[in-house]
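Mods, move this if it's the wrong board.
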Amino acid sequence: MSALLEVEGVETFYGKIQALRGVDLTVERGEIVALIGSNGAGKSTLMMTICGNPPARTGRIRFDGIDITRMRTHDIMRLSISQAPEGRRIFPRMTVLENLQVGAASIGYQHFDEDRDRMFALFPILARRQSQRGGTLSGGEQQMLAIARALMSRPRLLMLDEPSLGLAPLIVRQIFEALGALNKEGLTIFLVEQNAYHALKLAHRAYVMVNGRIAMSGAGRELLAREDVRSAYLHAGR
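Not the wrong board. Structure tokens:
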């Protein structure tokens, strides 16, 4: 494997407040890499910094060897990166099908029918809800739609920010099973999660963030077995 995403010495600020402190992280092609940590640790800030907003003040970010540190967000996304942000942020007045059409817009619609059917196979409930407005879906269905919409652009890197947040355990398991299936097809996934149990069980490798720094890293299941990690981060439940 070789690095698809490289973060080196990244520091990010909100005004005078420093949010990230010398962060180093890599995501290899074909991996699932998880970033766990408590609320406010800086996990979402790192994902947003990778996407260019807020920009890194120091350090370097590379995607497939291209320096994207100073690139604008829409240019970064054109490099075949997709993000399902925290809070889902689907278009609530659009139908499920229209949300998928928005997801495909950046690459055109020549593969739309094929990709739509693939999303419906991955998340069968969306097929039954395709004419329903996004805002009327349950929280779990909205999360599935957010992931499906991100996948419609055929990304090489899928970034997910807190996909389990606020969802019932059964729905969380379904979503993580879908992520595992996508990875087996070759998709590289960078996952930011507070639910350490599911994230570490799924991930090939993981990083633990504390106060804007990477405090430890290792294989997902190795970190899951560590007593200090379990006591600090498994409160999110299974």
